[in-house]
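Collaborator request, handled under Task 6.
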Amino acid sequence: MNYPESILPNSRNNKPFPIDKLPPAAHSLTRRIEGKLSDKAEVVGGRLRLDPDCLGVIVGMSVNLLGGHFLPEYSPILQKGKGKDPWDGFSDIAIADYSGCYEDTGYDYVFYRMDLLHGAAYPNVYKFNNKGTYKAYQTFLEQKVYPQFTDGIEVPISVTLTLEHSPTNLNYWHFVVKTSLTDDAKLLKRDGSWRDMIFKHLLLTVYCREATETLTTDGAIPVELYEKQE
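Structure tokens returned to the collaborator:
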């Protein structure tokens, strides 16, 4: 396959990309799924519903920003090895130096509106039936979230999603979705039942239910946001 060299980082690119200067409702991102939509999704009430298993890693989920040089059809490409390593912020990347560091998976992809993944808060109520299960977070729950925390109580907790520019050697337009507790801006840990519990809800209500098969917003990104100006 011929790699799309237009998405390679170069010394003229800005790092980090100033994501907050974009109007979120006007832009979209893509996410490669693990498989084909015909096997990994269904239509419920006229809306696409993804199988959670097809998204792979959901803590720090990778997405690609559209509107610059990244085109939707590049989404099935998987970066590997040093190709997925973080870009240093100043080098001109040449594809000839990255032989074997990418492949076309042939997988499908979905779209997300930027306003669903950046600065978006998602409230929910959680009921803890066994305090011992969450022993590692007991002090945090008692002191930060709900002082009167006890077994079986319903605790209001919400999470906020933000996009963080994380360019790789082979993709300047790569971002990750960061998740924090709304009230404390505390990044959730990658492991543990606490994270799993919250992300089960988040995954089902946002990532799986808000994905679309077609592009709904296609705003263009001003060149000065991603390239240094003389």
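The cover message to the collaborator said: "Confidence is low (pLDDT under 50) at residues 184-191. The longest strand covers residues 154-165. Please let us know whether this matches your experimental observations."
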